[in-house]
């Protein structure tokens, strides 16, 4: 029994017609045949009842195989750019990938369940958009509407302020770290949105009040007999280990090692 096979080959990235990148080969009669890459029509008869077709692409440096039995007619093509062909269905941005594509949205929108349609984020749905009175959602943003007799400072909810355009309320942050009377951190202050926290220098630890730093007594909390300190002297932020006879300072310059 013979296998009749007709293949229409049309590959976009054929390597200038030299079949060095994308190509198709047919395995039959115990051997691989010629490479086909540019527009061509292959019509052959094979003694084998099973014909294997190998499609190679340099996009992913992989091979894919398809096996056909009996009489088969197929078409093999390179990647179809759904984005440029206009068949992607993306409402906004389309990115082509080999064998597929995906849709994406601007940062003020999210992708719906159909993975194609972008929907505007309704800022008014969360905390009324920071507006004290009326919030109106618009594409990519929102606006706050205040009573005509209200001043700008009272148009937004607590913790919000009008933006430079006076159109909507945005979160306002008070940097407590710029005012030590507010932060009361004894050493370091790290500002956060609507908050802050205190940190301490090396050799100190944060007290239970979360603001003050107290010295770590390394002689009590760190030094052990295996460190071979004859005398340990603690002071603010550090300590001094005096090595016992026959020992010298180790690489950390704080503990002692045998000099044997």
TrEMBL record:
<feature type="domain" description="EGF-like">
    <location>
        <begin position="198"/>
        <end position="213"/>
    </location>
</feature>
<keyword id="KW-0964">Secreted</keyword>
<keyword id="KW-0325">Glycoprotein</keyword>
<dbReference type="InterPro" id="IPR001881">
    <property type="entry name" value="EGF-like_Ca-bd_dom"/>
</dbReference>
<dbReference type="InterPro" id="IPR000152">
    <property type="entry name" value="EGF-type_Asp/Asn_hydroxyl_site"/>
</dbReference>
<dbReference type="InterPro" id="IPR052080">
    <property type="entry name" value="vWF_C/EGF_Fibrillin"/>
</dbReference>
<keyword id="KW-0732">Signal</keyword>
<dbReference type="InterPro" id="IPR026823">
    <property type="entry name" value="cEGF"/>
</dbReference>
<dbReference type="GO" id="GO:0005576">
    <property type="term" value="C:extracellular region"/>
</dbReference>
<keyword id="KW-0245">EGF-like domain</keyword>
<dbReference type="Pfam" id="PF07645">
    <property type="entry name" value="EGF_CA"/>
</dbReference>
<dbReference type="InterPro" id="IPR000742">
    <property type="entry name" value="EGF"/>
</dbReference>
<dbReference type="Pfam" id="PF12662">
    <property type="entry name" value="cEGF"/>
</dbReference>
<dbReference type="GO" id="GO:0005509">
    <property type="term" value="F:calcium ion binding"/>
</dbReference>
<protein>
    <recommendedName>
        <fullName>EGF-like domain-containing protein</fullName>
    </recommendedName>
</protein>
<keyword id="KW-1015">Disulfide bond</keyword>
<dbReference type="InterPro" id="IPR049883">
    <property type="entry name" value="NOTCH1_EGF-like"/>
</dbReference>
<dbReference type="InterPro" id="IPR009030">
    <property type="entry name" value="Growth_fac_rcpt_cys_sf"/>
</dbReference>
<feature type="domain" description="EGF-like">
    <location>
        <begin position="241"/>
        <end position="256"/>
    </location>
</feature>
<keyword id="KW-0677">Repeat</keyword>
């Amino acid at each position: 029994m013979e296998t009749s096979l007709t293949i229409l080959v049309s590959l976009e990235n054929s390597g200038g017609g030299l079949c060095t990148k994308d190509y198709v080969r047919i395995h039959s009669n115990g051997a691989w045949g010629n490479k086909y890459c540019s527009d061509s029509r292959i019509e052959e008869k094979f003694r084998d009842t099973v014909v294997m077709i190998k499609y190679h692409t340099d996009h992913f440096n992989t091979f894919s195989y398809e096996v056909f039995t009996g009489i088969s007619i197929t078409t093999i093509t390179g990647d179809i750019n759904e984005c440029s062909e206009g068949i992607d269905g993306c409402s906004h941005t389309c990115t082509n990938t080999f064998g597929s594509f995906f849709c994406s949205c601007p940062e003020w929108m999210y992708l719906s369940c159909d993975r194609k349609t972008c929907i505007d984020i309704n800022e008014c749905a969360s905390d009324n958009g920071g507006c004290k009175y009326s919030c109106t959602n618009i594409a990519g943003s929102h606006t706050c509407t205040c009573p005509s007799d209200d001043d700008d400072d009272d148009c937004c909810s607590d913790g919000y302020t009008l933006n430079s355009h006076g159109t909507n309320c945005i979160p306002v942050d008070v940097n407590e770290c710029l005012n030590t009377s507010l932060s009361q951190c004894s050493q370091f202050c790290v500002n956060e949105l609507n908050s802050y926290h205190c940190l301490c220098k090396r050799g100190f630890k944060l007290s239970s009040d979360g603001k003050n730093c107290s010295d770590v007594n390394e002689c009590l909390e760190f030094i052990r007999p295996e460190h071979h300190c004859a005398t340990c002297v603690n002071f603010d932020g550090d300590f001094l280990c005096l090595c016992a006879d026959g020992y010298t300072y180790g690489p950390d310059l704080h503990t002692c090692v045998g000099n044997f």
